[in-house]
């Protein structure tokens, strides 16, 4: 019972990071039908930026804020310069471009910062919390991780539902052609979508890196699991992305805890295969009810 | 020309890929008039509207709205210049609510006050939409959707309205209602309307003038009453 509690809470904490990656993928997929394979690379890069800021200023929170801002800027920049020219030219073009971006980002990070593993500070204490004598399996830092991702997801939801910017984002995702005809400049909307995706990726990077160390490939396996979470959630549903992330985190935590932690990535792929066999469009996709 | 045209199309050539569809189309529409665009399937009616609204780039020719040439501009810029295009098959965004669809129509206008005034105008003109404003647009009937897309187009306060087959798939009673609405918009709002219709008889009944397209060229252009009484034309091109 004690173990079960630890695995559950620990799984939720890790799952929130997958959820953040999943949200960043969903944001881009909804707007542009592009799978951004460079999302992990972008998050790694912004985490390096945070690392430099923390090293030079000594303030974790300065690094945290700069990483998020860098994520926004990097997302917007990549959309305008690299992704925009591939739009309307067949899905394979954008796939190759985002994979190329991933290689480029990892290469440039290696050139600038070197390939060695660097430790990255956590937001708060990573000492396990206890209630009485019962260990919970999570730390204050884990609580902050969960709270930060939840708050960001909630803010995103409120923007989507209750602001005109959110209305533009949703309309562009559902029907870009019609939305253009109504005078909405969808180019700007897509740039904003990428910027928000960069923000969520950056958030995931800063939150996960204390437990992975920082190196040019440090986000690769996190990206694969975040991608799995997004697909489980249906790829075009932000709510599905969050639930998919938490679900995956918990399942992998049980699998790692009870079956051994050597094969966590394999369990992740097994979970993905299972969901796709039972519900090919993901658990929360609206694709079935949509006219495409 | 006695009066400056609200919409003038001059020698427009356009097509898809290498395939030409419009081969030198010219039209002139007076402000506050309805022009019926008639012709068989494949004559280029829909392509004409898509070219005006920028979804298809013309290879040649000018498209003047109140004197400004909009040819080869982006669809969003053409919409902002006062051209509202209601595409065939309606284009209601089914995942959004009725109110969200309407609000979307006014997003190109500046100022929250202007936008909310447009919204209350729409509800006043279309009480049916006010009753259903929280409803998912996908749950509306065909006729209700047609009203919604026209109402949404009006949210931008356009000067030119391009309507593609608004009667498609509607019950006869609903067709009459939509045609009445188009006539009302001309009379009360002063809209210049280009009305593409398969149903030539009901289009000519409300139109001021009409053009007949065949294989991408204008084969007849005259007052609506003259076209409607031309037996040979009716038999050849209009099918009534």
Order of helices and strands of chain A: HHHHEEHHHHHHH
The CATH topology of chain A is: ABC transporter involved in vitamin B12 uptake, BtuC
Query: Could you say which structural class the secondary elements and strand pairing of chain A correspond to?
Result: mainly alpha
Mean pLDDT across residues of chain A: 90
Order of strands across the biggest sheet of chain A?
1-2
The best one-word shape of chain A is: globular
Radius of gyration of chain A: 19 Å
Instruction: Return residue spans of chain B where pLDDT drops below 50 for at least 5 consecutive residues.
Output: none
Strand order of the largest sheet of chain B: 6-7-8-3-9-10
Into which percentage range does the β-strand content of chain A fall? under 5%
Q: Uncertain segments of chain A of ≥5 residues (pLDDT<50)?
A: 288-292
The number of helical elements of chain B comes to 10
Quickly give the CATH architecture of chain A: Orthogonal Bundle
User: How is the main sheet of chain B built?
Assistant: 6 strands, mixed
| Residues in helix, % of chain B | 25-40%
Helix content of chain A: over 70%
- Overall morphology of chain B: globular
